[in-house]
Structure prediction request, 519 residues.
Amino acid sequence: MTTSPVIRIENLEKHFGRLQVLKGISLDVGVGEVVVILGRSGSGKSTLLRCVNFLEEPTGGCVEVDGTRLEAGAPSRARRERIRAIRLKAGMVFQDFNLFPHLTVIENLVEAPCTVKGESRGEASKFAEELLAKVGLADKRDEYPIRLSGGQKQRVAIARALAMRPQIMLFDEPTSALDPELIGEVLTVMKNLAKEGMTMVVVTHEMGFAREVAHRMVFIHEGEVVEEGPPDKLISGARDARTRRFLEAVL
Amino acid sequence: MPFKVKLGLVYGAIGVLLVLFVIAFQYDTAFILEWLPFILGGVPLTLFICFGGIALAVVLALLGALGRLSHNALFMGVANFYVSFIRGTPLLVQIFFIYFAFPQLAFKPGVPEWVQPLLVYNIAFAAILALGINYGAYMTEIFRAGIQSVGHGQAEAASALGMSSAQTMRRIVLPQAVRVIIPPTGNEFIAMLKDSSLVGLAGAAELFYRAQSVGKAESHSYETLTVAALIYWLLTSIFSFFQKRLETKMGRGHVREEVAPPRARGIA
Prediction:
């Protein structure tokens, strides 16, 4: 996987008050690459992901997504536009789904393409139906989210992000809120997405998924990248003691 | 004895006592029958003022709530002042101010002529303005709470999809907040039905004004005010009935969905 990077994270810092959560992280992600970010809770891995699409404003450093570059800085109109440009390129999937409960499944999918991109309802629905078929939920088209299981909700959430035709996908612990028997169906959808060549950054504790799908694993500890490498290499021969301890705990 | 029967007996006893009271104090039925149509003639104006008032209040409450939640100092400052000032002054003073003080301003020397129609109203319009502004301030808090009841994750998901904050508010947050906002708004409407009687003091020929002016003139205040009270009670009971049904309907379904497991945000 040595293509030109589609995500460049340079020296990223994030402070919450006096607490420094990210201490200058740099990371490049190539086109079609699947990167799994590992780390204990509180290590800063979710914050890192949320800084990529500026749901969290970094306090230092720089993020570039598919050629759109933005440094940490004060809010302004121009900045808001840049952030939106980055968000249009980066789909995001949350731990607790965050589906829109007042909209049906299909309406959840067409909402943003219609309001943000000005697509017609017709073309947006057509693509949305294709996506629903892809995640195996074509028959749930007109259900409200409350009637879906957690796994189904998360698959709808993935389809909703894909409906914007993003260049990259960010997954923030997508299976952590799911009952164990529902995790598989979500991971299958993610694996298929990876096979299609989607660039993915995934924060997860699912080591099976990481080993099978990830091109690279990145271990973060206290806001710093401690170690990174292909899953096999990292799992069998981590150099850093902290990485080894973490892997022993989760494997 | 079943509880419901006991309760029925209590209601019956209260009813009998009231009838006895009315008989004991020689309620003048003939008089009230003669004047009832005149008093009832105030009901349309009462309802007109209240529907107009609540419509204006909803608009102001929405603006007030958005202002109080805004990060813009101007919007927030204006909204905070509006709520604080209006809630801190009596409704009666506000009604009188709009109806009696504004016209005085309009005719001060040096005030351009085009301003006059902006400050001089007929009483029905002044009433709607006063009740709307007053209730809008109280309802601002209802609307704000409704908007804040929509989980933060909703706005986050919408902005991650590229929606602007205005789009997020209009398309995602407000439609969900409405479920929370509508039932208490019904309560405010019912409260306004009663407070609208204050407008009678400024001379609007609504229900209370008619009842008390006839009563005073004919020395039959006991008869006319009793009947006015009963009409207010009937009106509020009718609207309470619909309000309760609306509340049950709104409470169903989607609301439970919003109780997501709490989770530390940001650092994880």
